[in-house]
Amino acid sequence: MAVKPTTLDAYQLIHDGVLCLGRAEQVGIRVDVQYCEQKKEFLTKKIERSERLLKETEFMRDWRRKYGASFNMHSNQQLEDILYNVMGLKAAKETTSGAGSTDEDTLGQLGIPELDSLIQVRKLKKIRDTYIDAFLREQVNGILHPFFNLHTTKTYRSSSNSPNFQNIPKRDKEAMKICRRALKPRPGNQLLEVDFSGLEVSIAACYHKDKTMMKYLTSDHSDMHSDLAEQLFIIPDFDKVKYPEHKHLRNASKNGFIFPQFYGDYYGNNAVSLAVQWAKLGQGAWGPGQGVAMPGGLTIGDHFLSKGIRHFDQFVQHVKAIEEDFWGKRFWEYQKWKERWLAQYQKAGYFDLKTGFRCTGVMRKNEVINYAVQGAAFHCLLWSFIQVDRIITERKMQSRLIGQIHDALIVDVVPEELDELGFIIRKVTCVDLAKHWKWIIVPLDVEADICEVDAPWSEKHGHKLPEVV
DNA sequence: GGAACTCGCCAC
DNA sequence: AAACGTGGCGAGTTCC
What we know:
With 469 residues, the chain is an alpha+beta fold. It contains 17 helices and twelve strands. 34% of the residues are buried. The chain binds a DNA duplex (12 and 16 nucleotides) through helix 4, helix 6, strand 4, helix 11 and helix 12.
């Protein structure tokens, strides 16, 4: 594509995308029905056992005394009433409508053992009702056909439903194993997942062209997340390879500061997340011997004291200063782009994505910034999906694209075709894509995971794709 | 008995 | 001055 993508180009992308996502829907993904039925029964028994034990507790008896026949331990409305009216406890957080929150985090802070059990039951019910049950309900002759929609989102991303193929548990190990064990390749095949690494960060860079960011994205020796971890946790000899503790803090920097900042969050929330979730330093428990371990046997609480950060409030100010440095100095060109982008929208009433799509309507600042990036990033995946689908068809290969998760494509692969297909996907995503769209000015990279023949999706492991020379 | 709502929670 | 983007979906609830 020689010139800037037009509305017609955008239309063509959706047109082609709908056709090949439709093909993926038709192929579907194999589900182990017998496993799901067994697991459903197992989970039900486990849930019922926990519920029986819980019902006998004093906490639940008091609850039942008030609600009688309508007592339901899974009603958050009743729970809110019991905790914050009857017992007079103070909620750490409120919902958007002003009620005391009953989410996992808030309940955990109350230190009531029965609530910990209730959270455990909630997790099991989530797995059973949202995933295993949905798989059984939606499957036809042992095949699921998740829908992939291109017409439902404000950002021109996709969505998926019946069942939603894009939110199957991954991070929680237990939930991941139970749910993904149900999904398998067709007999004799393997499931292959290929995802772009840091796609949204790279696509954002194509808009703002910040020099510091460009350097991070093109150099093998610089690492943005380590650099920020060094700053946030005041560790001059930061070494994520040498110390597992530092690797943890790098994840903290990435998920507790950098990504939220890119989405428009601010230091106040970052400080809470970094301290409580990542450093394990409760806002009231800041001090010697507190928090996650550091190399050498001391804790991060000891470490912060030695660096002069003695209270949570001081840490907030510390993170505030880092935020100012982050946008004011380190990524100042990124910051300037955000300001220009917003001003352009406020003047024109719309903005155009790199891929030819136009966003109109009333939007908040963060939405104006984020939509442009999210949409164009997904279109990189969609274009790749279309090309791979076309090549598979042209070459009369038997492997099949079966789904997509925003920056990842999932293929049901015939083992004999794995190398050829790996090469095709690598070439499409890392070479052809940037030739098609000249606005892609940073190198894109992909990572892959694969399951052995006939093994379920829970057993995927890293897979090296062939290099394109 | 269904529509529409809130809340919580899973993914990127 | 304010303060995290996009989705789908289940359970509970309320309203009609």
